Amino acid sequence: MTIAVTVGVLALQGAFYEHVKLLRQAVSQLGKEAIWDIVEVRTAQELKKCDALIIPGGESTTVSLVAARSNLLEPLRDFVKYKLIAPQKRKVHRKPTWGTCAGLILLAESANRTKKGGQDLIGGLDVRVNRNYFGRQTESFEADLDLPFLKDAPSAETAPFRGIFIRAPVVERILPSVAGEQKEEADRDETVIAPGKDDMANAWSVEIMATLPGRSRRLVEKVGAIGLKEEIGDIVAVRQRNVFGTSFHPELTSNASIHVWWLRQVLELVQAERHSQDLKSKEE
Asked: Which partner from 69, 77, 144, 238 sits 20 to 30 angstroms from 209, CA to CA?
């Protein structure tokens, strides 16, 4: 059965138009299992209509500031995170969200190289990110990435994905999933954390979806990275159930393969959630 799915792109600042363009390109490559509506999101009312969301690259501090002034921070946190509803203590499914570059920073539970109170995080990914890990704007670069999650996708391209890194963060550490706030992270210098997750630990672990080998060895002393294992390389893409994050900017390329893959993940999650809602309605 064909279902309607609305995908929003947070359009407060940054490369939101580029995401919209590639999403529409990706939709043209998908089948007819869903009717897709791609929209720009600037208000809580627009967010409420969405089944999934992309938080684009840009300036994470600016995005969080504008979101706070627009009364969007709490709706964004509710959109992304799992939540317990009293008194039944029923777990409510949260919606698929993808953050690129600045979006990854905002979705992290912890971000370092940040002054206390200097930025609000949305949270949703149990990771610590190192902001601007690769240096300033002039040190931006492109690199071929091996993305195993694309290889099994229908019509996947066999060539490496050309990743664009602009003042890019990396995932410095996979954090344990804890109930409430990441209190150990809060005690670190120059580190901010996201608000707690309603006293419920995430049941899903973080998956490493892509790494960039080699650069950590050359840059670790220069930027003061802590905790990365060189043999793993720099972690540049992660997923935790409904939340996906990339350090690089797929939207700045003409390659829609990651957007196609993500929309397929969105469709699976939306179908599963609507099926669960139908079963609950029948039980009631």
From this structure: 77
